[in-house]
Amino acid sequence: MKVFLWAEPDEAGQALPAKIGKDLADLMVIQPPDGIKDLSEAHLAGMDIPALVERLKAQAIPAASLIKAQTDKRLAELREKAQPILEAHDPLALVRQAIVNQGYGGDPAPALICFLAITSRLLAMRPGAMPVHLLLLSQASAGKSYTLMVVLRLLPSEAYHPIPAGSPRVLIYDDAELQHRAVIFGEADSLPAGEDNPAASAIRNLLQDHHLHYDVTVKDPNTGNFTVKKVRKEGPTVLVTTSTRRLGHQLDTRVFSLEVDDSREKIAAALEAQAEVELNGAAPPDEALIAFQGFLQAQAPWDVVIPFVKTLAPLIAQRAAGPRIMRDFARLLSLVKSVTVLRQAHRQRDTKGRLVATIEDYVAIFNLVGPMYEATLTGASKELRETVKTIGEMLDKGELITATTLAARLNIDRSTASRRVNAAIKRGWVVNKETKRGHPWDLHTGEPLPDQGGLPAPDEVQKTWERLGSVARKNKGETESATPEPIDILTEKELCCTDGGDTERVFPHIQKDDQELLREVII
Description:
This protein is α/β, with parallel strands linked by helices. Helices cover 45% and strands 12% of the residues.
């Protein structure tokens, strides 16, 4: 079938070829004469419509060519705007600085982790891989929403899709595209709940399997019969939300829970930053960073390989305390890959066209999320260990332990202290012998905490990787070298279009098919 599209000269009309061309590889685009919007106007102008249509069909442009030209133009514009970031030694450092410049007080790590999590939307996903879905967790007014707002100001609008508080099924019935985008639920209460809820199951499938499938029974208004409406949305999609409590078990295992610091030191730093903004104002969002994310978005998906992954996996397995590590390991790899994508201008490609991550990319993630992964690997976070240790010290001194006294010792909010105690009780490291609801705690020490163990240090990964590479080369009878070369790297001469000029890779669906065209349609 040969299909012609009459593209009206306004902005909406010029955007149609890209939308329709995704599904019609052989689409031809008709550009109307100057001053003519559509066939109705041509008729009113006294034109010979059959002759006009035949002439315009003969002059029609393949949508593939038009899409490529539009994409190349857009990439060139974004590349020019993003040039300061592309030329920077480390774009990740610029992101950190941009977060601070917007008035973010205290350690910017939570915002930086959130930025990298949303960047993971751009990655190519194989079966079993996962982007970094994120839950920002803390008591009310501790800065969850502000952290998210600061990050979103550094992203173009096409990078994310906000879902305001409302029906849990909004995401399912919303017609917004989700592929390579982050979905922002301002409050986790807006997410479909319930382990057996079909809508919740559809969301979980989107997060893990990278596509949303949801079937709903609807009544046909014409016949009165019930039919099945199939809702299908392609990912990968990153979920980011905030909450004062953990999510349901099924959803909780699919998200990375990031506890936002609500200590007095953090509050003091936030107040100081607010005072500085009040006096001198905050820096506007960095336009170059926004353009940089748009530049990356236009080329998604980004295929990244981590050459030392076979070294990293057994080192983490030695430290793991439960099966959840399998999902968290997938998220760890996506975080490393996100750093690689940000540093893509300084990374090599292998012969399969994949960006090659380096140990330095792992170092960045190790420094950012090491404490979070200690909780995943051992079940005991740094904060939980501190809480259990303080409870033991207070018991040894015969001090009264309440949420208020414990919070004062830990220099945190009362509700945070209660949440940590409940978590310690659940894991058996603290025992509450008071069984009556609503009565004060009667806390005692429980099982010993597991040995500390987080992510393997970067130098351990590097040395193990080099050692294994050396053994492999000896087994093959090859000469030793300083570092292993597990994958084939493209030479500079072989490498092309690393800066995003390859629109054939970006839009593979626009390749021309030589099959015989059976009939013609004008739309």
